[in-house]
């Protein structure tokens, strides 16, 4: 007895997701924390859905970006050099390096 259901031919393969525009920093897992291979940056978050990632400069312990969206965003932020630039601004802020003028790019001002 014929049935109304027939299998269709396989469709074309799905397109691959778009690659990030900037390269991603190489990472390793270290004691439950994500760390760049050079050991300078750590990326951490609470194991709860929807919690943001934080980018931490390990030698100083400074949280450079407490609100990064995803791990891929953190890796791109570090790889692009933005994390280092923000760290330099934060350290200048703490030294009083730009107190006379408010630095719009400084995460702490």
Explain what you see.
The protein is an alpha+beta fold and 109 residues long. It has a domain at 27-95. It is built from 2 helices and 5 strands, in the order βββββαα. The chain has helices spanning 71-79, 82-95; strands at 27-30, 33-36, 41-44, 53-57, 62-68. A 5-stranded antiparallel β-sheet has the order 1-2-3-4-5. Strand 1 (27-30) and strand 2 (33-36) form a beta hairpin. The model has no long low-confidence stretch (mean pLDDT 76).
Describe the protein's topology.
Layout: E1 27-30, E2 33-36, E3 41-44, E4 53-57, E5 62-68, H1 71-79, H2 82-95
Antiparallel strand pairs: 1-2, 2-3, 3-4, 4-5
Index terms:
single chain, 109 residues, alpha+beta
Order of neighbouring strands in the sheet with most strands: 1-2-3-4-5
* SSE series: EEEEEHH
What is the overall number of helices?
A: 2
Rounded to an integer in angstroms, the radius of gyration calculated over CA atoms is 21 Å
Strand tally is 5
Helix content: 10-25%
β-sheet strand percentage: 15-25%
Shape type: globular
- Characterize the largest beta sheet: strand count, sense, and whether it forms a barrel: 5 strands, antiparallel
The unreliable regions are none
Mean pLDDT: 76
């Amino acid at each position: 007895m014929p049935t109304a259901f027939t299998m269709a031919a396989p469709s074309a393969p799905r397109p691959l997701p778009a690659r990030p525009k900037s390269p991603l920093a190489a990472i390793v897992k270290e004691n439950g924390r994500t760390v760049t291979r050079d050991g300078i940056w750590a990326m951490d978050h609470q194991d709860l859905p929807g919690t943001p990632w934080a980018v931490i400069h390990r030698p100083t312990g400074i949280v450079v970006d407490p609100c990064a969206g995803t791990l891929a965003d953190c890796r791109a932020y570090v790889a692009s050099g933005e994390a280092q630039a923000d760290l330099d601004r934060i350290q200048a802020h703490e030294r009083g390096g730009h107190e006379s003028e408010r630095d719009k790019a400084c995460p702490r001002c």
